[in-house]
Amino acid sequence: MSKLKPNSRMYSNHRQKKRKQRIILGILIPLFTVILIGAMYAARLFATIENEIDASFVEIDRPEPVEEVNPIDQPVSFLFMGIDNDDVRGLQSTRADSIIYATLNPLTHEMNMLSIPRDTYVPIMRNGTVVRWDRINAAYAIGEESVMVQTIEEWLDVPVHYYATFNFNAFLDIIDELGGIEMEVPVTITEMNSSDQSGAIRLEKGYQTLNGEEALALARTRKIDDDVARGHRQQLIIEAIIQKALEFQSVSRYTSIAETVGSNMRTNMRMRDMTAIAQTGLNQAFTVESHVFEWSSFIERDMDLVRIQPQSFTAIQSALQDSLTRTEKDDQSSLSEDRTETQTSSSNEEATGSADSSD
């Protein structure tokens, strides 16, 4: 990966941009935060949300239980999955179309987020045994959340404290409940709709309001770029959902949104967990570090697959592991030292090289 020199203007601008980014807790978790804030002012709404969230609770089987954490004062990790199947589509096997691993550290007020290409070639794990080597999204078809969580934990050597799986019906309905979202469409595209009708959705290039079907078409199209750009596009759509949800006129729709989310989600988070997660973001803004693997494509068994470059994998794995153990004191002292050395002497690049950005 290319590195930014710590004494360069580019590095300074890069760091400032990072600190201005909004926290994105995966696929739809930011919306939960918004709803929870609104719930503080409406006991009836809170009760509705609590019922819906509790109804979506599903624990998973693990060879060994993950260590319990308190999100208010301990780093936590999340695995977010978006699946593109329902009773209408009736696909014989369901695979995870979107996979995001994220860590949240309330001590350093940092979040690390990694979008994992769904065609990444990994060992699929079940109960400590390799089932087979396959695309990572196949883990969901083999054993749903249980196998997907075990596969991610073994591959990245990180814990998964919480998971949340969303059906794309939630994606469609929430956007429609909000009255659409405003997005920049990069090029004119024709795409299938959620019922797989070819050419049903046509989007013209330019800034416009998209309904649920149109936003889903933009989120999942593979006609205009690669998986990396597609992941970034999906994050922009998530941000647009957050922005619309924060508008005052959206408050009246929170009850129906909560019902939509609850009926199209499975998670091992209770309401108390989500409340604790929301509290971590109410006191101070978080910085976001978004990680992208360097990868190459190859073909095996007539499948188009993704191979992660070893150096990229090691660097990002270390960043994720570090984010789950770092304390505010260590982080702040290290950051302060790096800034001081950068400002006082341009000849100390080697001494401050640890401040280079590797993402």
Summed up:
This protein is an alpha+beta fold. The protein contains eleven helices and 14 strands.
Please provide a written account of the structure.
- By secondary structure, this protein is an alpha+beta fold.
- It has a single domain (25-328), classed as LCP protein (Aminopeptidase).
- The protein has eleven helices and 14 strands.
- The chain has helices at 9-20, 29-39, 43-55, 138-156, 168-177, 212-220, 227-246, 254-263, 271-280, 310-323, 328-344; strands spanning 76-83, 96-105, 110-115, 121-126, 129-135, 162-167, 181-185, 189-191, 201-203, 206-210, 265-267, 287-291, 295-300, 303-308.
- The strands form five sheets. A six-stranded mixed β-sheet has the order 11-6-1-2-3-12. A two-stranded antiparallel sheet has the order 4-5.
- 37% of the residues are buried.
- Mean pLDDT is 75; it is low at 1-31, 33-43, 87-92 and 331-359.
